[in-house]
Amino acid sequence: MTDPLLILGIVLIVGTAGGWLAERLHAPAITGNIIAGILLGYTVLRGIDVVGALQPLSTFAIGLIAVSAGGHFSYRRIHNSLRRILFISFFEISVAVILVMVGLLAVEASWQAALLLSCLAAGTAPATTVALIRENRAKGPFVKTLLAVVSVNSSICILLFAFGQSLLASYYTNDAIGLGLIEGIRQTALQLAGSVSLALLMGFISTRLFAHNRFHDFSTMIVTILIGVGLSIHLEFSPLLTCLLYGAFLGNSSQESERQLRTLDPIELLLYVCFFTLAGISLHLDMLAQVGLFCFVYVVARAGGKAIGAVLGGILSGSSQRILTSIPLGLIPQAGVALGLVVVLQGNSQIDPEVTSLVGTVVLAAVTINEIIGPFATRWALRHAKEAGLDRPRLVEFLQEEFIAVNMVASDKADALAKLTNFYARTHHVKKADREAILRTVTERENQGSTAVGYATAIPHGRVDSGHAIQGVIGIFPDGVEFNAPDGLPVKLVALIVTPVEHEKRHLEVLASLTSMISNERVRTRLIAATDANDAWEIIESKESRSYNYFLESDGEENGEMEQA
Sign of torsion, CA 503 510 418 489? Predict the structure, then answer.
């Protein structure tokens, strides 16, 4: 049984069955895929190099997943949570690296092995995280933070490992740490520069192909990722880093390019099943006994370091309690990045084979543990954050953290409208000409009569010729703005709505929902006093407010039926 197509068929059938059974037992489907893979590796496919036979498909799968993860590092999504993301990333990486290094040296591991293992400890598992978020249909500030942190620490892990590997290669060759530091810095810079350049080239070409109707978007994405991964391997760059950066390029270039990130959704489920089942096949439970102490120290120190660092970074950045208590368990999974880097290490003849063998064995054993318990931990984190099940169409989609601005100041109504329109343009990839057109329609509507509805609130609105959905932003002006309100009070809450002409009926429902929510004095008072965008989102998502922004049925756009949250 060596035919790759037959092996692939068996992997997909057994992996899917394992995922289905896991879901029936209320476990993550990913865990079922991995356990099915482990069973396959020890039974039907025992003695067969399954991972080698399907390596190209597995490599493509991790590339596609990395593109999806990188796409979530979009400035328009994280602009008002960047401080939180960077603080959490910096501290969870730093503390995990330090604790793993100190812990391994304490149990008498060689400094060379401790160095490489501490570099690997920085990374998480983009594939596991993305798959669990999709499986749980999760959405919200915690999900956004987790995905961005995973993208950052995966990238840093690749660069740290390149530095550590180059340092040791130079040390073994020249017996000089100083030369190793210089070579490590050079190799890390080359790795980063190469992946950035290739990702930019991929993005430049693909975005232009997307703009031409004669090129199929699905085919364009597949070919771009295939060539990007292939060139990265050929040029000895990191395919994972290249794809992460390519996804970030798409997420930051335009609305149309960002939508292309969902082009491959129809095949993602099969790729996830294949990837995680193959990950299970590559895991070896018998290795746990060989490096028991080192593996135990690595797993505990890494998980503890990430938890302590993430909480510390969250506290220093003023993160909400929801994020502080959920983020530690979201960072446990570890698979694709670590396994890929170990493969690279094993091909490096300049490093002592004993060090290479020890690092590889410890990582394989640790990944076995982390990929079995990690999905349970991440799923718990998503549910504890109360963001599982929120990735569904809602009446007012723009009540998200990234579309809220607090502590705004305006001299008058015109200034407030201009600033909100600029904020809308920044968060929705709107071109300058379109921004001016939107401001013109908003101003024209305002000149017909004030859009202030009382309760210190105004809901100005403009029109666009076409669009996928009603969009908008919310601005909080604590000092108030004169809006000629019917009750004579200055306006402190302004919700700017931009409606495509084909969504006029839904527009009235959105207006009614916003007016009802703001008329709740407790909700309104708390919103005006919000300290940041995340605080405002927490108020909007509270039990007291959620009923005003209900979920829509799958066919709600056609028949207007609604599902209460």
Answer: positive
